[in-house]
Amino acid sequence: MSRIGNALASSVGKKIVMGLTGFLLVGFLVEHLHGNLKLIEDPSGRAFNEYVAFLQGFGPLLLVAELGLALLFLAHVYLAFRLTLENLQARRSGYVVRARRGGSTTGSLTMFYSGALILAYLVKHLLDFRFDARFFADPAALVKQTLAQPGHALAYVGAALVIGVHLSHGFRSAFQSLGVNHPGWNPLLAKLGMVVAFLLATGFAAIPLYFMLSASEGNPS
Amino acid sequence: MSAAAGHDAADSMRITLKVWRQEGPDRRGRMETYRLADVSPDMSFLEMLDVLNERLIAEGDDPVAFDHDCREGICGACSLVIDGQAHGPEALTTVCQLHMRRYSDGDTIHVEPWRANAFPVVKDLVVDRSAFDRIMAAGGFVATHAGAAQDANAILVPKPEADRAMDAAACIGCGACVAACPNASAMLFVAAKVAHLAQLPQGAPERERRALSMVHAMDAEGFGNCTNHFECMAACPKGISVENIARMNREFLRAALFERPTATAAEGG
């Protein structure tokens, strides 16, 4: 195998790629939330539509960015499946009695499941908006119309919370995988991971809640 | 249920043991129940198993096979998962240093072997840990010719680095990290060896080759991947920190980027 192939196929290489893609995806989420919050900042929807138009203004560059983003997701998801399968294989005969000693958390033990839920949600999300023909005519209107339905809105709130659970382990874990573990930084990184998870979860959950509640108040604007 | 006749209840405990029995590597295992009526709180856990085995031998049964050697917490031979915890409930303690006073009269205790495909069961509670030997053989040593012992001050090692290397060198290779890891990963063990040698002048020249070949050997043995649960650190009887895993990740990245297979640093020095 080639040098890069050897490095990437090793257990440590896979960890490093997992952490790196995870970080970049968090970066994407931050910018995505920044764009989406324009829906609440300006209830008329104009600011959000201008933001969408601004992104579309990049033309072919936007397509390149979208392909890059898709690659990040694919690499992250592929490694998640592969690591999970390998880890299941590594202990085929399990313990009769199992006790945790305090290292693992709900977030760390459910990474595969929270990740799978986020993947399922991502497919729904793309179908709801990105691949809906009506999206580019008036994006804000389509968002408002979709999230006014409590079923859709609650699904999005749930997805936001799952992202929070995923990041409660993932953010700190990515630093460790990339080799950052220092007594002077660890307390800050642990707190930062929880803050990032909390802010992204509540930020993303706020948008469907806002549209669902304003629709139920009979005030769709 | 009254205390056993003739014994002070405080000095003697009734313990129910549920022990994994497996006749051989290819045989199906099962939990077997044994009742011990006269366990002293001063016994170590292994002495309690000795008492059980003496009884089994006297009764003509097969004694429970388990690994043990120094019985003073430094050799890394003992390897039992007790009630789901590698080396039992006591922190920073090998099974041989766990004592029955940790338990109460009437307790039921589950005893299982380390479970990982890379550590196949030989018999009962004994597993084959030669995977660790093969990982060590792949680079867990210093191959440079060091010559005769030098003057103590000829090679200066800063105290903080010496301390960190010593902390990593405390690893006794028992495999509790693998047993405790939800993924049966051996990262903490390999990281301890890589970190220990990379931080000392004698080990530093081969640090890149070592990181690559030990990680490669670990992967070849079929251990799981590390997903940073840190259960290993909580179970380690020697308190090896996951900081060493982060260091190994850095060592590996550095080696993957800069190591040159043809020009060996060892021969150059």
Give your account of this protein's structure:
The complex is a heterodimer of chains A (221) and B (269). Chain A has helices at 3-9, 11-36, 38-41, 46-56, 60-89, 106-109, 111-130, 139-147, 150-177, 186-216. Chain A is built from 10 helices and no strands. Chain A is globular. In chain A, α2 packs across α9 (150-177). The model of chain A has no long low-confidence stretch (mean pLDDT 95). Chain A has one domain. Chain B folds into 2 domains: 9-123, Ubiquitin-like (UB roll); 129-268, Alpha-helical ferredoxin (Fumarate Reductase Iron-sulfur Protein, Chain B, domain 2, Orthogonal Bundle). Chain B has helices at residues 45-58, 130-137, 159-169, 176-180, 187-198, 207-220, 231-235, 243-258, 265-268, and strands at residues 13-21, 30-39, 80-82, 85-86, 108-113, 121-123, 126-127. In chain B, the strands form 2 sheets. Chain B has a 5-stranded mixed beta sheet. In chain B, strands 6-7 form a two-stranded antiparallel ribbon. In chain B, a hairpin with a 2-residue loop joins β6 (121-123) and β7. The longest helix of chain B is centred in the C-terminal third of the chain and has 16 residues, at 243-258. Chain B is elongated and about 60 Å long. Chains A and B meet through α1, α2, α5 and α9 of A and α6, α7 and α8 of B.
According to DSSP, the number of beta strands of chain A is 0
Looking at CATH, which topology of the largest domain in chain B would you report?
Answer: Fumarate Reductase Iron-sulfur Protein, Chain B, domain 2
Q: How many structural domains can be distinguished in the coordinates of chain A?
A: 1
Biggest β-sheet strands, sense, barrel of chain B? 5 strands, mixed
- Overall mean pLDDT of chain A: 95
Question: What's the Cα radius of gyration of chain B?
Answer: 22 Å
- SS-derived structural category of chain B: alpha+beta
Distance between the termini of chain B: 72 Å
- Briefly, what CATH class of the largest domain in chain B? Mainly Alpha
Number of domains of chain B: 2
Helix content of chain B: 25-40%
SSE sequence of chain A, one letter per element:
HHHHHHHHHH
In whole angstroms, how far apart are the ends of chain A? 59 Å
Which stretches of chain A are poorly predicted, pLDDT < 50 over at least 5 residues?
none
Q: Work out the oligomeric state of the chains in this entry.
A: heterodimer
Q: Label the overall shape of chain B.
A: elongated
The share of residues in extended strands of chain A comes to: under 5%
Radius of gyration of chain A: 20 Å
